[in-house]
Structure formats: structure tokens, C-alpha cells
Amino acid sequence: MISIENISRTYRSKEGLIRALSHINLRVEEGDFISLIGPSGCGKSTLINMIAGFLKPSEGEIKLKGKPVRKPGPDRGVVFQENSLFPWMTVEENLYLALRNSNRTVDYYLDIVGLKGFHKAYPHELSGGMKQKVSIARTLALNPEVILMDEPFSSLDEQTRIQLDYELKEIWERERKTIIFVTHSIEEAIFLSTKVVLLTKRPGSIQREWELDRKKRWNFYSPEMLSLREEMKNSMDLCCKDCKL
Amino acid sequence: MMDRQVKDTILRVVRYIAGIGIIFLLWHIAAAIANYGREVYFPTPFSTLSGLMDYLKGKPLYGTGILNHTAISLIRWFKGFALAALIGVGLGIAMGYYQFLFDLFIPVVTFLQIIPGLAWVPVALLLFGLGEGATFFMIFITSLPPVIVNTAGGIRETPPVYMRASRMMGLKGMETFFRILIPASSLSIINGLRIALASGWRVLIAAEMVVGSAQGLGYVIIQSRWSLDFVSAFSVIVIIAAIGLFIEKVLFQIIEDKLRRRMGFERIL
Ligand SMILES: Nc1ncnc2c1ncn2[C@@H]1O[C@H](COP(=O)(O)OP(=O)(O)OP(=O)(O)O)[C@@H](O)[C@H]1O
Ligand SMILES: [Mg+2]
To answer: What is the pLDDT of residues A156-214, one digit of tens each?
Structure first.
């Protein structure tokens, strides 16, 4: 459904040219849950932003259902890392913006994320986790082809994050969405994904991919989770010893 | 919770009144010293307030009542300010959004900003001659830059993630402005209007003193100089200060507090 074809991206900065991504090839099929992991600064956000249309690739092309991506649009919903709800609008008004071309109701989407009854609340009246849930509801309300999430839960505490991981997985299964997800947590990637993609350090290229069983129920602290985690971690250490995830 | 808020507010008001008390005290001391063995009477707070009372009750003051002078000044002020606000917000938004307009106009705006209000007197007189046009021009030209600078700044400093979210949702053109950019920069815009109103007020009084307008608060002050009737001048100064304080500390404070709450900013403070 999405094909990322030989993408590279170079930034111009004061220190000269910085090559952030190099020759990325990736296919995403409908219903996939793809997680991108890799050392800090390897270009994960860059890739997400190019799929979203906020950035242009220096080389290569990204296609969504055969059509090249040129600019942002509601067919690619984004859940941002930082709070991106408009603080001057209530939850309901925030969702309305996304719902303009749909006949579903605000209720429907608030219910999906378990926030029924919060219509009239302002974002600052919600906890960090609730804000991200509204953000997810807003993205669902766009009814996009693909949902892009760049470290959506990284500012939350561990417990809340795991809670949201469970809920996200449920939503993904129920709503049959396609998701591309960036995270620093290998466990989170394993728990959620149908495929985990490991990028090398900058300039990021795909080092290894793991196809996972999409029906599997992972337990966060089970031995198989820990051993797969170990495998991924070792794989990353191969490319750089002191890289921090 | 509520109780504490009320208590805090009361405490703040009390301190504020005490602050005004200090002004009157200093004024009284200054008057006492100035009046020590001198011919011309330096009005004390009490004589000023009682003079002001007389004027408020209808005692004529250079042709008309003090309330009339005040109203005339207020209208002049508001006219100049309103036009500056309209043009300033419009131009500021455009400049904030389009980099090339910003680059094109910011030198002009900076230039206007540097020039003190009163320096416009010759320009105003040359363009409009003595009278209404000149005061209007001076208020307009001094109120305009702060509105533009703050509006453009607010738009430019809108967090990029808001723009990204808005583009992601497919908002277009005017919708982006009215639903995203303007609300996001509303505090900054209000701040610009506030500064504009204050500088407009200052230059208005000065303009009325210089560019000849047979009515208005500034006119009263300059007239009293010729007739040595300084109580009237001081009464007018009290009115000027009261109006300025009201606009600044009451009107704009209320607007800003409301906005802050609406925008969810009060948590940050
Ligand atoms: N606007 C920019 N100008 C110059 N260089 C940039 C810019 N944005 C990113 N980079 C560089 O590109 C590289 C990739 O950045 P990116 O934000 O995509 O990394 P990331 O994988 O998301 O990192 P993290 O895990 O820390 O979020 C970084 O090394 C950064 O230095
Ligand atoms: Mg990143």
C-alpha cells in the first residue's frame, strides 16, 4: 500500500551537509503495524515526516497506493510526540476539525479511545495520557489510509505507556488500521508490531527487519519477549557499540 | 480554592490602593515644598481633587465642560487607534505568514518605531495643517508599529506542530488563519494592541498640546499654562492617569485573563 522507494535525505546545516537517511526501501501493506527503531539521530523522525509530507526526500520517492506523496493530507494521519491539540479548542472542537468530511460523530471516536464524556474539556484539563488518546481519536477521525506515530508515548510514565500500548493494539485490531510507529522502546515495538525495522546509526539505512506473528499476545516481561529484545539489542550493538536507543 | 483566590484578589487590590496612596503622599510633600514661600500655587492632592469635583459638577473649563474635553480626547484616541489596529493586525498577520512581506516591511516598521511620537509634529502639520487630521495622524502613526510587530511575531512564533497538525487535517487558506494562526497568536496580538493604546494615549495628549485643537485634555493643560490656573491642569492629569490605568489594568487585564484561561495558558503561569 505504501512503498518507500530508495529514499535518501540530506539536511543542510551550519556544519555542512548532513546525510540523515540513505537508500531506504520499505513496503507497508494494509493492516501492517510497522515499528521503526534505531539509535537516536538515525533519521526515524525524518522518515516519518517524509511519509507525512512535511519534508521532501532528497532522492527517491514515497508512494501511497501508487500515488507519489507531495504534501501533507488527511490520508496520512499523524500522532505527534508533543501535544498538538489546539489548546483554545475543547476536545470536541478539536475532533470536529478532523471530522469535517465524515458523517461519524465525535462520540464515536471518543468512545474508541475510552474518553466518552470529555467533550467539553480543554486539553490542559487532561492528563498527558488522555491528551495522546484524544490525539489518536483525532487521527482516527480523519479516517486515514495510514497512521504515523512518532514516539507518541515517550513523554508518559512507564505504566501509562504500557496501558496505552494495550489500548492502541486493541484499536489497531478492531479498526483494522495501518500504522507506522517510531519508538525507543524495543519491548513496545515487539508488543505492538507485525514488523520491526531496525535502522543503523546516521546515515540511517535498514539494518535488519523482524516479521512477527500478528496474532501473538505478548507479555511485556515474558522470557520470549526478553530474548527477542536481547536479539534486537545485540543486532543494534553490531552497528555501533555505544549507541543509545 | 475559591476562597484563596478571593483573598488573593482582595490583597492585590489593597496593595494597589496603597500604591496609589504613596503617589498622593509624594505629591503632597512635593507641593508643600514647592509652595514654601512662592507666588504661584502648586496644587496639592486635596485642592486638585476638590477642583476636579467642581469641574465634574459642570464648572466650565476653557469653553466647555471637563467631561466634554475628556470625551473629545477619547474619541480622537479611539479613531486613530482603531485604524492602526485594523491595518496593523491585517498587515501583521500577512507579514507573519509570508516571509517576503516581513523582509519587505520590517525596516519601515522599525523605522517608524524608533521615532518618538512628538517628532511627528512637523510631519503631521505639513500633511494635515492645524487640527483634527494632524492629531489623528500622530496617534495612528505611533500606534501602528507595536500592533504590527506583535502580531507578526505571534504568527511567526506559532509552534510548528500546530501548523503541521493543521496541514495534516487538510485545513486550507482562511481556515488556517482564523482557526489556527490567529487564536495561537491572540495573546501576542492583544499585547500589541495594549502597547499601541498606551502609546497612542501619550501622544494624543502631547499632540493636543501642540497641533492646536481647541478642545481636549491636552489643550486644557497647555491653556492652563497661560492663565497660571494649574489646578485645572492637575485635574486633567488625574483624569488622564485614571483613564490610562483603567484601560491598562482593568480592561486589558480582563481580556488577557479571559484569553489565557480560554487558551489554556494559565496552567503554565
Ligand atoms: N532541520 C535539520 N537540520 C539539520 N539537521 C537535521 C535537521 N533535522 C534533523 N537533522 C539531523 O538528521 C539526523 C536525523 O534526525 P531525526 O530527527 O530524524 O532522528 P531520529 O531518529 O528521529 O532521532 P531521535 O530518536 O532522537 O528522535 C539527526 O542526526 C539530526 O542531526
Ligand atoms: Mg525523532
So the answer is: 888 889 989 999 999 999 888 999 999 999 999 999 999 999 998 888 889 889 998 88
Question: For ligand 1, which residues put their CB under 6 angstroms from it?
Answer: A 11, 13, 18, 20, 40-46, 202
User: Which regions in chain B score pLDDT beneath 70?
Assistant: 1-2, 212, 264-269
CA distance B7 to chain A (A): 24
User: Higher-confidence residue: A6 or B131?
Assistant: A6
Instruction: Kindly list the residues from chain B whose CB atom is less than 8 angstroms away from the CB atom of residue A124.
Output: 264, 267
For residue A196, the 8-state DSSP code is: E
Interface probe, candidates A54, A90, A97, A132, chain B, greatest B C-beta count within 10 A: A97
**Min Cα–Cα distance to chain B from A56, Å:** 14
Domains of chain B, each with CATH number or no CATH:
65-263 (1.10.3720.10)
Q: Does A70 touch chain B (CB under 8 A)?
A: no
C-alpha cell at A167: 489500548
The answer to whether residues B55 and B69 touch, using CB atoms and an 8 Å cutoff, is: no
- Per the prediction, chain A carries an average pLDDT of 90
Residue of chain B nearest A98, judged by CA positions: B169
| DSSP letter (8 states) at residue A69 | P
**Residue A18 CA, closest ligand 1 atom number:** 5
Distance between CA B253 and CA B269 in Å, rounded?
15
- pLDDT for the residue numbered A245: 64
Q: How far does the centroid of ligand 1 lie from the alpha carbon of residue B157, in Å?
A: 21
* pLDDT on residue A205: 87
CA B215 to CA B238: how far, in whole Å? 17
CB contact under 8 A, B164 and A84: yes
CB proximity list for B142: less than 8 A, separation 6 or greater:
B117, B120, B196, B199, B200, B202, B203
Model pLDDT, residue B268: 43
Chain segment B58-90, per-residue pLDDT in tens:
888 888 888 888 898 999 999 999 999 999 999
For ligand 1, pick from A45, A80, A199, A202 the residue to mutate: most ligand atoms within 8 Å of CB: A45
Cβ–Cβ under 8 Å, residues B142 and B117: yes
